[in-house]
Amino acid sequence: MATETELAWAAGFFDGEGCVLISVAARSTTKHLQTSLVVSVVNTDRRPIDKFSSMFAGWKGQTSRVKFWLNPNRRLQYEWSVRGLAARDVCAALLPYSVVKREQLAVAVEFYTLPWRSQRRVAGGGYTLRTAEQVLIDVQYAQRLKELKRASAHT
Predict the structure, then answer these.
(1) Domains in the chain, ordered, with CATH?
(2) pTM of the entire structure?
């Protein structure tokens, strides 16, 4: 597990370069929308991305990738991301140290307190069919995060 100093560094870096969102997508197999918590960090310097990867190593759902651009004038981008319950755990770890994204991280942690959110650490997260009311609440959380992002972009 990361030290307090490492978590403070990670929160500061995340405040500047990170993203927390609740993705909303239609499932092809059901009539319901699927929501998923996603946390990511992107940078053109690979070193901080590697540090995130090592700090949260072994967390289910973790991916690292390199973004290539067709435009030769663009620099490579390195991305680290995590989804689902592991994303909630990252948000909870960074929350005490965050300044800029504190409210967004708090909403993400709260999202996972909803009783129908899976607490299983397995591939796929243990998706369960939710009621229309539960889906609506999930989408409202996604909208809250979007509004917080817009508000912080204008400050």
Answers:
(1) 4-153 (3.10.28.10)
(2) 0.85
